[in-house]
Design goal:
heterodimer, A: alpha/beta, B: 13 helices, 3 strands, about 60% helix
């Protein structure tokens, strides 16, 4: 069974003269993590608010698991869990109370809310801080509490706005594992983030948002295939010494190969080109220690799309 | 409406309140004030028959005053304050409806206000020790106190949903409360005086001789003790302004203290006067309903003839005039209800329009 997840068609929303979201169409599959990528002010949070049934779109339709949040907000809310970018926690309530209260607000009975809270606190790694008031939690801990709060009612659809900000590396890895598991359980996950390298590791698909408009898949594909930079490092010599043999092997002008600290930066138009270049370098007997794309695919596409705009 | 969710919203508010120190400080200051007020009321009413009703009514009035002064701060930022702290939106995405949020916060505000009444309870008991307190007075005055606390809490919650800035909505709540408590007597006094009628005074005095004593008819030398034989002067007519408070007395009916006084049944002392502050309040408000007499006549030659010997007693005034507390209370409840409805429309999600300068989360 494949639930529709999130389907958005032609959504528009403005605040006075500010057109926060101009034309957004996207689809997020159930069982997959979809990334929402866009610069500051591109309308990500406004879109999230509309998906979370808090804000009505001026035009267009939204379906959360087949439900229109505008017509049936209660049905949509039962399906979705939302984690806002602004962390609002009741300062004097403990983490456990926060989750129990939220569970009660979702209509869980007292027993189920308590059991759920205990399970979620362990899941997001707040087990030892269960009875600390929210105001003493660090930013990262509040972030984890926010994630747990979004999961209280076992939602089918998760909307996460910048969930990784403020998390330490271990917590990010935990978050990634948790998100993969949630997706594997058949949930639809839409996640927005600025940290593209983070997003890259967890998302199955990405939706690009520029100036309140979703970028068409053709444009994304075109941007993704433009020149992309690889880092190359040889094991036995420093970058300056490596420039000449590498340039010769690849048929480049050694003087024009940029050097970044220990690495040489070489651009390739496609993955195929990069692969054959690596084969050539290895074939020439050069001790290649590192050969990696300098930017993630998301970051590359994102920067490219932004470059197009300006 | 779901009772469990409604109560969860109210509990959220109350839990946060009981965990702040300032809340207990406020209750402590309130208790200290009541100690002083009760002591002074004992001194003020002691010695004139049964002092219980007087002391009791003073404590209730002061409690109402303090509730009116404190409640706007406690409820006047409950919704926009949450929005500022980013705790409103996470509640709105749950299954809780906007009506439940508003009503839950209103109930919490009401209970908070009633906590002050609870602090006043021991002092009310002490007042009854002085004797003579009518159980009916206790019941009615406490019911009015409880309802008034609810009205102020509802107005505060509603304004916090209608206005974007917490500071502004708290100030507006204070203004509404001030309009009801101070504004109504002010309007009563000013409008009553402005629509004054013209009264006529008709006077006649006796002629006086060079020594200042009344001149007597028929050349009698001394007649100071028989006004009938004075030489009387001409009748003189003058006009003066008579404020028409009987036209505007209803303005007072929306005043919380007037409602408290007017609703509470009055008992009278042996001298015919109300035995507590509620009754005195009721008497003065009811007296305003009586039209003033527009003609005053005084004749020095026949003193006493025109004196109105039939001044109505306080009991007669109260019996003859109409009670207005239920009208005033209805107006207050209607106002609070309308404001709550407006707040509901403003806070509803999915939101179509947002108050200027706010964001939803």
């Amino acid at each position: 069974m494949t639930l529709p997840g999130i389907v958005v068609t032609g959504v528009r929303r403005s605040f006075g003269h500010v057109h926060a979201v101009r034309d957004v169409s996207l689809e997020a599959r159930a069982g997959a993590v979809t990334g929402l990528v866009g610069p500051n002010g591109s309308g990500k949070t406004t879109l999230m608010l509309m998906l979370a049934s808090l804000l009505a779109p001026d035009a267009g339709t939204i379906r959360i698991g087949g439900v229109d949040p505008l017509a049936e907000p209660a049905a949509a809310r039962a399906l979705l869990g939302w984690m806002p970018d602004a962390l609002g926690a009741w300062p004097t309530l403990t983490a456990r109370e926060t989750l129990v209260m939220t569970g009660r607000l979702y209509g869980l009975d007292a027993e189920a809310a308590r059991a759920g809270a205990a399970r979620l606190l362990d899941e997001v790694g707040l087990g030892t801080l269960s009875d600390a008031p929210a105001r003493v939690l660090s930013r990262g801990q509040k972030q984890r509490l926010g994630l747990a709060r979004a999961l209280v009612h076992d939602p089918r659809v998760l909307l996460l706005d910048e969930p990784a900000s403020g998390l330490d590396p271990q917590a990010r890895i935990d978050l990634r594992v948790l998100l993969r598991r949630l997706a594997a359980e058949g949930r639809t996950i839409l996640i927005s983030s600025h940290i593209l390298s983070e997003l890259e590791e967890v998302v199955d698909e990405a939706v690009f948002l520029v100036d309140g408009t979703t970028v068409s898949s053709e444009r994304v594909a075109a941007a993704a295939t433009r020149l992309r930079t690889w880092r190359i490092r040889l094991a036995d010599r420093d970058a300056t010494a490596a420039a000449l043999p590498v340039a010769q092997t690849l048929g480049l002008d050694a003087a024009l190969v940029p050097i970044d600290r220990r690495d040489l930066l070489v651009s390739f138009a496609s993955d195929d080109d990069a692969a054959s270049a690596l084969a050539a370098l290895v074939g020439a007997g050069l001790p290649v220690a590192e050969f990696a794309a300098a930017t993630g695919l998301l970051e590359h596409t994102f920067l490219d799309l932004r470059g197009e705009r300006s | 409406m779901n009772a469990a969710r409604l109560w969860t919203i109210a509990r959220l508010e109350l839990l946060q309140r009981v965990r702040t120190v300032s809340w207990y400080v406020l209750l402590g200051v309130f208790a200290l004030l009541l100690v002083g007020v009760t002591a002074l009321a004992y001194l003020a009413y002691g010695g004139w028959g049964q002092s219980g009703p007087g002391i009791y009514s003073v404590v209730v009035c002061v409690t109402l005053l303090l509730v009116l002064l404190v409640s706007p701060t406690l409820s006047g930022n409950s919704i926009n304050g949450d929005r500022d702290a980013a705790t409103l939106a996470p509640v709105q995405v749950t299954l809780v409806t906007t009506g439940e949020i508003l009503l839950g916060k209103f109930i919490a505000g009401w209970i908070t206000g009633l906590a002050f009444a609870a602090v006043a309870a021991p002092f009310l008991v002490i007042a009854t020790f002085a004797g003579g307190v009518d159980p009916l007075t206790v019941v009615v005055s406490l019911v009015v106190l409880v309802v008034e606390t609810g009205v102020v809490a509802a107005i505060g919650v509603a304004l916090s949903g209608l206005l974007a800035r917490p500071l502004f909505s708290v100030a507006t709540t204070y203004l509404v409360v001030a309009a009801l408590t101070v504004g109504t007597p002010l309007g009563f006094g000013l409008i009553g005086a402005a629509v004054a009628s013209e009264g006529t005074s008709i006077t006649r005095s006796y002629e006086t001789g060079p020594d200042g004593a009344p001149l007597c008819q028929d050349g009698v030398r001394f007649c100071g003790d028989t006004p009938d034989s004075f030489v009387c002067g001409e009748w003189q007519t003058g006009t003066y302004r008579v404020p028409r408070f009987d036209y505007v007395w209803w303005l007072l009916s929306a005043n919380p203290f007037v409602i408290l006084g007017d609703a509470t049944p009055t008992r009278f002392t042996e001298y015919g006067y109300p035995d507590d502050l509620f009754g005195s309040l009721k008497l003065s408000v009811r007296s305003a309903q009586l039209p003033p007499s527009l003609e005053q006549r005084w004749d020095d030659c026949a003193p006493g003839v025109h004196l109105d010997s039939t001044q109505p007693t306080p009991r007669e005034i109260i019996d003859e005039t109409v009670p207005s507390w239920f009208v005033g209370l209805a107006v207050q409840v209607l106002l609070a209800g309308l404001l709550l409805w407006g707040a509901w429309a403003r806070t509803r999600t999915p939101a179509r329009s947002l108050p200027p300068g706010t964001r939803i989360a």
